[in-house]
Specification:
Chain lengths: 180, 180
């Protein structure tokens, strides 16, 4: 399938889940909105769960590139700012929160690929920091990203409050410098 | 309503949402399982969202008492261990993850009360730590609990991987001592 057509399908998928929830997402609806034949979509993705799982990882709308600012602190602040945009600023937030929320209720919609794919790209931030001597090799990068991304999720999705100014900087300072 | 009857209603509510998802939760189903008349339930909680929101905060099954071990580190490790049990060990995890996941897709089911209620009780951990001289008063307690609870959520719910031994201790060490 042409990459542009594929992006139109992912885009339709994400917008439908944002508008109607996972229950309202159907391959028929995606076909209608993207103008691609339903049987063609089914040939590539055997279910709506598979389609939404692929959209989470491959849609340009949720595209992710690991920041490279020259310092670990700068990279992590940029990383957290990206998660803040993803989870609290439309249009990305409308689709990301709806799709990730659906993944909690519907395990067949496998969100693990989304997180594994992002983490594979986040790793380089930590590898560069170790090479620059900013970070001990024994530090677990997954723990660091889960602390930071998790704080954004809890604060903006569950508590439903706007993030205070400087949230990214403060969260990164807590994890890099410690609060104790 | 007698507190015991109320707990039976909350219990039925949480078990139904764990078994059938939010879409499958109905006040009728709760009435049937708890043996309480439907109109009585509606008199107390006007909708299934209100009922599940109340169950999240008031059900004994999800009961929460802030740990008091004598040190900030001990309290936070115990706090994280409690979140791990809540989000990854049945029976609490079955109901907590289903109910919180539903809250993402259905904002009318207000999860903010659940988080506000827990935070009101978590605060004392930090107040005691400040009095003992273990923590500067300028540290934001909500940032600390959101980092820690968020890491458990991402790791066990979204990544769907078992938490490694010592996860609570390592997560608390990262936030108290810093990784940088």
């Amino acid at each position: 399938m042409a990459p542009r057509k594929q992006q139109e399908i992912f885009d339709a998928t994400l917008r439908l889940v944002a508008e109607k929830g996972y229950a309202g997402l159907t391959v028929e609806g995606v076909a209608e909105r993207s103008g691609v034949n339903k049987t063609t979509i089914y040939r590539w993705w055997p279910s709506k769960a598979a389609l939404l799982g692929a959209a989470l990882v491959e849609a340009d709308l949720l595209g992710f590139t690991a920041p490279d600012t020259g310092s670990l602190r700068g990279d992590l602040v940029a990383l957290v700012e990206g998660v803040v945009r993803l989870l609290s600023e439309p249009p990305a937030a409308d689709v990301a929160v709806a799709a990730l929320g659906a993944a909690v209720e519907h395990p067949e919609l496998d969100a693990r690929r989304f997180f594994a794919d992002r983490f594979a790209r986040e790793r380089e931030i930590f590898e560069r920091a170790v090479r620059r001597g900013e970070l001990k090799e024994s530090v677990d990068p997954m723990l660091v990203v889960d602390l930071l991304a998790g704080a954004v999720w809890i604060r903006s999705v569950f508590r439903g409050v706007p993030l205070p100014d400087g949230f990214a900087r403060d969260a990164v300072a807590a994890v890099l410098d410690g609060v104790g």
